[in-house]
């Protein structure tokens, strides 16, 4: 048994009795303050004669407030009963209680705050003397929320969406199934590059997630000569993709700022790793002829047959890492 915080009482005046300017943040991030019983007209209760009011709490209610609005502070008893007519709580309010709140229109409010499960209830209010009053019930009701409102998936891969704090069954739908489909459990499968909207309909709400499907390709900015100091040479991958047979082709750019004409790469080594560090493929070549003039660059590629891949199953190249090693040289020099 406890009094409402005065802030909550002030909120009632603003929210239910259309007076005042106070506000209240919902208890939960995804909770919505909801009118369960909204006062329409003033009633007059006789002194010491119980007035009974019914109300129903919806699922996902986190807190409930039972309020009496009057023209002046007064004394009353409030008893709350469940559908089996068992008392679940009660409170005594007196006219001298500091928990009374008022507004510029002269309306006073006070009441009870508690947490009850969803279901049917009734409240018995007994005023000490004849009183004009209004009765109201508000509740913090959790609203269903979707796990992601924006999602990026690599073509050919899946990710799961979910909804929490829902009471009903979720119905999933894709706006463009050819780009990304979704099953009854919220599993999204990326089909081809593009954008689409996945919707989850539940509890009278439509929740949305914007899905972007990207090609299963490794893409990185190409090296430029300005990035490599004079007297040095470097090379790194800027692209990788599978062909229709599952072979892996990797594209590289070599930068030559050595001050000499480069003729080859020596002890070339390439490793392709997943975002989690697992090795997908490796490639080695003792000497690869590659003629690159000084202060210039050259693009080249290698293809690793599917049979030579350490992981035969297609992996997410978009988030992969490609590591390179090797030295540069020409007829008389090695760098």
UniProtKB/TrEMBL annotation:
Residues 1-31 form the signal peptide. It comes from the Bacteria. Residues 140-212 form the BIG2 domain. Pfam families: Big_2. The keyword Signal applies. Keywords: Signal. The keyword Iron-sulfur does not apply. This is BIG2 domain-containing protein. It comes from Eubacterium plexicaudatum ASF492. The lineage of its organism: Bacteria, Bacillati, Bacillota, Clostridia, Eubacteriales.
């Amino acid at each position: 048994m406890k009094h409402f915080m005065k802030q909550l009482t002030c909120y009632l005046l603003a929210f239910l009795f259309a007076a005042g300017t106070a506000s209240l943040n919902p208890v939960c991030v995804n909770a919505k303050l909801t009118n369960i019983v909204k006062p329409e007209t003033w009633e007059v209760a006789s002194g010491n004669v119980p007035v009974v009011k019914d109300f129903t709490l919806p699922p996902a209610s986190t807190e409930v407030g039972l309020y009496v609005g009057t023209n002046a502070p007064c004394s009353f008893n409030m008893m709350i009963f469940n559908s089996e007519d068992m008392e679940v709580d009660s409170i005594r309010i007196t006219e001298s209680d500091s928990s009374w709140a008022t507004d510029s229109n002269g309306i006073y409010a006070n009441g009870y705050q508690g947490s009850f499960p969803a279901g049917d209830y009734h409240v018995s209010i007994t005023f000490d003397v004849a009183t004009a009053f209004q009765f109201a019930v508000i509740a913090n009701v959790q609203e269903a929320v979707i796990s992601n409102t924006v999602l990026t998936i690599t073509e050919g891969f899946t990710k799961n969406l979910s909804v929490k704090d829902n009471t009903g069954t979720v119905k999933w739908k894709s706006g463009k199934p050819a780009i990304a489909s979704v099953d009854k459990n919220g599993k999204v499968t990326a089909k081809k590059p593009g954008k689409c909207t996945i919707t989850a309909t539940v509890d009278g709400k439509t929740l949305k997630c914007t899905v972007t499907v990207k090609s299963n390709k490794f893409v990185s900015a190409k090296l430029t000569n300005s990035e490599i100091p004079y007297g040095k040479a470097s090379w790194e991958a800027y692209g990788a993709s599978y062909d229709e047979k599952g072979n892996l082709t990797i594209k590289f750019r070599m930068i030559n700022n050595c001050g000499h004409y480069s003729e080859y790469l020596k002890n070339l080594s390439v490793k392709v790793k997943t975002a989690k560090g697992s090795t997908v493929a490796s490639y080695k070549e003792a000497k690869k002829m590659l003629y690159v003039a000084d202060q210039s660059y050259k693009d080249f590629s290698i293809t690793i047959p599917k049979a030579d891949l350490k992981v035969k199953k297609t992996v997410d190249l978009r988030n992969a890492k490609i590591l390179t090693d090797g030295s540069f040289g020409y007829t008389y020099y090695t760098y």
